[in-house]
Amino acid sequence: MKVCHALVALASLSLMASASATSLKLSPDVDVLVIDGKLMTGAILKGAESLELDGGQHQILFQVSKSVHSAAPQTPLLYHSPAFIVTFNAQGHRSVSFVLPSLDSEKETVQFTHVMNYQLVNEQGRQIKTQRDVLNMFNPEQVADAEKLMMTYNLSGARAAVPSFAKNNAERKTVMTRKMPSQIEITYLHPLWTRLAANAGIEQFLLWFKLPVKQEQAS
Predict the structure, then answer these.
(1) DSSP code, position 67
(2) Cβ neighbours around 174 below 10 Å, total
(3) Which residue, of 64, 113, 157, 199, has the greatest Cβ tally within 10 A?
(4) pLDDT average, residue stretch 103-109
(5) In the predicted model, what is the mean pLDDT of the chain?
(6) Nearest-angstrom CA–CA distance, 55 and 89
(7) In whole angstroms, what separates CA 70 from the centre of its chain?
């Protein structure tokens, strides 16, 4: 009976977490580089169709890569956009996704580079309010430096900066250097169970399963 109640409680916690989560839909033309100051590795993104975000403020560094038609039909060009920064609030949205304009010609890619005329929309196709910028110092051949560059950017006071992401990043690096466990390592990008385990309120729930056998029988 107790196990049944436990499963019901766990299901309720899962529903609560799911209700407050937002799915970031991934696109093959959009290379997500950094989210909230954290570098996105291939291990995180490999084979994923979406990433789970919490319902708060987020910041994404991304680059658009797409084959476009050139003047010579036999030699298509691979367009790489600048590294774009977009900051938004996911509160109240079940999903967010990028909508790109037509990028089939060199003229269209040049316009996109300067105008940044992409859209960030929710599950109903409605545009989400954003702050946008370009990370000019980004070098596509040194993607590993993107996290450090975003830390500097977020401390700069620029229009799409979020200082708290730079602070969290610095704290995370300090903890890793000292080889100490930290809640910073348990982020919303991890699976749902990991996020639940990071919640202080579930600690008592987990301890419930560790009751001595005699106490279990007495109940």
Answers:
(1) E
(2) 12
(3) 64
(4) 91
(5) 76
(6) 7
(7) 33
